[in-house]
Specification:
The protein is of the alpha/beta class and 362 residues long. A hairpin with a 5-residue loop joins strand 9 and strand 10. The chain is rod-shaped. It starts with 5 loop residues before the first strand and ends with a strand. The protein is built from eleven helices and ten strands. Helix 8 packs parallel to helix 9.
């Protein structure tokens, strides 16, 4: 709906007011009419005016006094005023009018073409002025959004630096705890075999060492898979998710319910994004949700891939969902956006959380 500018017309003679309305009938504006200054002030209270057309000689409050009252509280947004007068004003009257906000005088009887021409000019100026104001407001909003974007980028950079250090620390811990201890035990066994070679006990010890080496190989494969899921390339998304959820089910008390469809035409970037989102979602469930069950559902649709990860935990607080600084949610959304996808986090009643991801087909 188009919003029309407001024009105030005031004349204490009803016939003059009617004639003025007839002249301005074709103008694209909302006419606010009044037969006295007091009536006019009541009608324009809280109204933005683009123009006021006032009769100078009116009973009670004259046009000059009304103009002063109209612009009294409009210091930065004064209303342009056209005065209507039966006789050409003298210099003193002209000065009084301009001090009251006058931009023009029109002598009665009114010339229709002149009045419409001048009204149209002031309406155009009004619309241009407000277009500039809107542009300025939009620019300010854009600047605010840019500043928010910069702050989010700084937070993301900070998060990435910390995440990289945490990842290095985790890798170091895994190597030290899992591989280091196993290799130390293997070294001790080798030293014993060297001292007791040829005995039956040495043969048994060698068998245990082979088992230990096989265990180390499995640990190396698991660590490697967590750092870069080669299974995605070899087996596809569904099998990789099944393997990952099986690993998590062994380590935690979570029970995983899987319903996985595999795309005929595989796209590694899409599969990787969905897999990383799943990893982050499961990590959040383990850390915060106090859940016992997690459901992972993947459907291949004609226009893309849809994945949902649901849990029966305590849910996510609304302030966390709305917080743009929540790096876990931010990271998942960025993963989806990299593939032109969308991600929503919604509560499940009576309790739980669902993460819904859709990535369009390329």
């Amino acid at each position: 709906m188009k919003i029309l500018p407001n024009i105030l017309i005031v004349d204490d003679i009803p016939s003059n007011l009617t004639y003025l309305k007839i002249i301005l009938k074709g103008i694209e504006a909302n006419l606010i009419e009044a037969e006295s200054g007091d009536e006019a002030l009541k009608k324009i209270e809280g109204v933005t005016l683009s123009l006021a057309i006032l009769d100078v000689q009116m009973a009670g409050m004259n046009g000059y006094e009304l103009a002063i009252e109209i612009n009294k509280e409009r210091h930065t947004d004064s209303v342009p005023i056209i005065f209507l007068t039966a006789a050409f004003p003298n210099n003193e009257q002209i000065l009084t009018g301009y001090e009251a906000g006058a931009v023009d005088y029109i002598i009665k009887p009114l010339n229709r073409k002149i009045l419409i021409s001048k009204v149209n000019i002031f309406l155009q100026l009004f619309l241009q002025k407000h277009a500039i104001i809107r542009s300025h407001e939009e620019l300010k909003r854009s600047e605010i959004e840019i500043q928010k974007g910069k702050e989010q980028l700084q937070l993301l950079n900070h998060h990435l630096i910390n995440a990289r250090e945490d990842e290095r620390a985790a890798i170091s811990l895994m190597i030290h705890d899992e591989l280091g201890q196993s290799l130390t035990a293997l070294k001790i066994d080798l030293s014993w075999v060297r001292e007791n070679r040829g005995s039956e006990s040495a043969v048994q010890k060698l068998g245990k060492m082979v088992d230990n080496i096989n265990g180390i190989i499995r640990k190396v494969q698991r660590i490697s898979s967590e750092l870069h899921p080669k299974l995605l390339t070899d087996l596809g998304l569904a099998d990789t998710i099944e393997w990952y959820c099986g690993e998590q089910q062994e380590r935690t008390k979570l029970k995983f319910n899987l319903s996985l469809e595999e795309a005929v035409r595989k796209d590694f970037q899409t599969d990787l994004s969905l897999y990383r989102i799943l990893q982050e979602a499961v990590t959040n469930v383990i850390r915060h949700a106090r859940a016992t069950n997690v459901s992972v559902d993947i459907k291949i649709e004609a226009n893309g891939t849809r994945m949902t990860v649901s849990d029966d935990g305590i849910g996510v607080a609304p302030d966390i969902l709305e917080n743009s600084n929540s790096m876990g949610l931010f990271g998942m959304r960025e993963r989806a956006l990299q593939c032109n996808g969308t991600l929503e986090v919604v509560p499940i009643l009576p309790h739980g959380t669902k993460i819904a991801v859709f990535i369009p087909a390329k």
